[in-house]
Amino acid sequence: MLGLKLLTDPRWANIAESNLEEILTDHAWCEQKAATNAISLITYNSEHEDLVHELTAIAIEEMQHFQMVIEIIRERGYTLGRERKDDYVGQLMKFSKKDGSRNMAFIDRLLFAAMIEARSCERFRVLSQNIKDQDLARFYHDLMVSEANHYTTFLNFARKYSTDVDVDKRWKEWLTFEGELIQSYGNKELIHG
Ligand SMILES: [Fe+2]
Ligand SMILES: [Fe+2]
């Protein structure tokens, strides 16, 4: 799926479902961080008009996802907790190249975003197929489709705007790194946990 090297064990969905307040809190903040990331890509790469427009749409969509999740939290009588530290994303951030050319850093930032979208999409798929709560299963199915589109957008912009990066080669490196990394996860009620 989306080139991912390792698929999530469906039992992770049971862990997630056993603590909905926790997974929904973590999920809400994932959406907020996705919006923040899109905004920062816009801020630093505003010379690319189509990127500014498409990432503005993504930033808005991610905040709509945030809104949907906090609504679910409220409807169910849960409380939105504080932002959870996302160790998985921290490790991906460490892997991204920041010291090469400006173009290299820009392209890697897009691939970093594509990578998180790909894994989030896969995790939403696992939730949609395995949780017993049918309302939430449908919700996660819809989000899975949306995040798959974001993944495609980020990857396409990386291909379009690369001047000195072999994007296909670098993307393979990302997939390999992430495939190793994700082996240590899949046992917590966190979207990337
Ligand atoms: Fe989202
Ligand atoms: Fe997304």
Automatic annotation (TrEMBL):
CDD domains: MiaE. GO terms for biological process: tRNA modification. It comes from Sphingobacterium spiritivorum ATCC 33861. PANTHER family: TRNA 2-(METHYLSULFANYL)-N(6)-ISOPENTENYLADENOSINE(37) HYDROXYLASE, TRNA-(MS[2]IO[6]A)-HYDROXYLASE. Gene3D superfamilies: 1.20.1260.10. One of its GO terms (molecular function) is tRNA 2-(methylsulfanyl)-N(6)-isopentenyladenosine(37) hydroxylase activity. Pfam families: MiaE (PF06175). Keywords: Oxidoreductase. Its EC number is 1.-.-.-. Transmembrane segments: none annotated. The gene is miaE. The keyword Oxidoreductase applies. This is tRNA-(MS[2]IO[6]A)-hydroxylase.
